[in-house]
Amino acid sequence: MRTVEFRFVVIRNGADFGELRAVDRGSLQLRMNSGDSIKTGLSGSFLDPGSDYNLLTDQIRPELIIDGVVHHLGVFLPASVRPIKDTTGSHIQIEAYDRGWIVRDSRLENLLHLDAGTSYQQAIEARLAESGIALVSAVESTATLPEDREWNVGTSRLDIVNELLAEINYNPLWFDQEGTAILEPVSVPVAANIEHTLDSDDVKSLMMPTMQREVDIYNAPNVFIAVCSNPDKTGVIRAVSVNTNPQSPLSIGRRGRRICQVITVDNIADQTELQALADRARNDSMITGEQISLTTGLLPGYGVDDVVGIHYDDLFAIAIDRAWTMDLRPGGLMQHTLEKVVVNLG
Questions:
Q1: Any long-range contacts for 124-130 (C-beta under 8 Å, 24+ apart)?
Q2: What's the CA angle centered on 92, arms 90 and 95, to 5 degrees?
C-alpha cells in the first residue's frame, strides 16, 4: 500500500519561501493539454496565507510525495486569486499557469528586426531571456534565418518563439516539472522513444478497469503538399509526402484513393525543413484517428505529448498522451487522452 501526500511550495526570487495549505474539501487539479498555447495549469482552493505572501509575483510548485519520495509537478504563476469567505473561514481560489504565461504576456515594445543568417536558436533564446525565462534546456540547432524578418510592436514573444520553432520543426514551447523551458525537435513516436508504459497486468501502472476507444478517419488526407511562398524567396519551394504505409488504414493502398492536403507556410528554414514539415503532417495523420481514454492512479513524470506504451486486454499500442488531468488529493485519479500511433510510421 503506497502512501500519497501533497505539498504546495511557494517560490520567491527562485528560492523556496513557504507553503500553501489546501482546503480539505477543495478540488485541486493539475492539467495538461498539448493543443493549448500554455500547456499546463493548476487550479484549486487554499487557506488564506496572509499578508506575508504576494501571489502577484510568488510562484507555486506542487509536489507529489509517494512513499516519502518527492516528485515536482511544475512551477505555476497565479493568474487569478479570488478571496472567499464562508462559515468555515477565509480561503482563496487560485487559477495558475506554467511559465509559458510569462512569455505569452511579454510583448514587443519596439519593432523587432532579425537579419538573415541569425541563428534560430539564439533568436528564440533571446526572446525567452527578454521575457525573464532563465532556465532553458535546448537541443542544439544550427539552422539560420534564410531572410530578414520583422515583427510589429505588441506581438507576443510566445507567438514569435513558436513561429520560429515551427520553422525548424521543433515542438511548441513547453515547461517541464522543474519549470524549465524545453526546446526540442519533433520526434517520431516509435517503440524506442516510449517514456511510460501502462500495462493492465502490472500493478505499478495503477490502471483502472475502464477504457474507451473512438475512431474518426472520415476524409483524412494521405497526400501532403507543403508549399512556402513569400516575396523574399526566389520562386516557390515545395515538398510532397505520401502515406503508402500498408499498416495505416488511411494509406492510398488501403483507401483506394488519394486525398490531398496542402500546407502553406510563409517562412521555413530551408528545403530540408519543408520536407520534414510535409513528413510530419503525414506522420501526424497516421497518429490521428483512434483516440484512447483511460484512467490511472496518480503517476509522476508526465510531460507534454509523452510517448506511452499501452497494454490493455488485447490492445498493444504506442500512443501519444495529448492531455491529462491529475486530482491532487489522496486517492485522486489521473485521466489520460491519448492518440494511437501506427507501429511503423515510415
A1: 124/161, 124/164, 124/165, 124/183, 125/183, 127/103, 127/157, 127/160, 127/161, 128/103, 128/157, 128/161, 128/181, 130/106, 130/157
A2: 170
H helices of 177-256, in order, are 252-255
**Residue 262 lies in domain:** 223-287
Q: Give, in order, the Cα–Cα distances in Å from 272 to each of 38, 97, 192, 278.
A: 29, 35, 24, 10
Q: Is residue 72 part of a domain?
A: yes
What's the CATH number where 144 sits?
Answer: 3.55.50.10
Same domain, 333 and 199: yes
Alpha carbons 78 and 54: distance in angstroms, whole number = 10
Number of domains composing the chain: 4
What are 290's three cell numbers? 483512434
Please work out, in degrees rounded to the nearest 5, the angle formed at the alpha carbon of residue 181 by the alpha carbons of 333 and 286. Answer: 65
346 occurs within a structural domain: no
Q: What is the pLDDT of residues 140-171, one digit of tens each?
A: 999 999 999 999 999 999 999 999 999 999 99
- Report which residue type is found at 229: S
pTM for this predicted structure? 0.82
| Cα three-residue angle 149-154-157, rounded to 5 degrees | 65
Q: pLDDT tens digit string along 201-249?
A: 776 777 776 777 666 666 678 899 998 876 566 566 889 999 888 877 7
Same domain, 140 and 58: no
Q: Output helix, strand, coil percentages for the chain, rounded to the nearest 5.
A: 15, 45, 40
Q: How far is CA 79 from CA 28, 58, 102, 229, 286, in A?
A: 15, 11, 10, 39, 37
Check whether residue 236 and residue 252 sit in a common domain. yes
Q: How far is CA 6 from CA 58, 61, 65, 72, 313, in A?
A: 19, 11, 6, 10, 33
**Same domain for 171 and 54:** no
d(CA 300, CA 73): 7
- 5 with 330: CB under 8 angstroms? yes
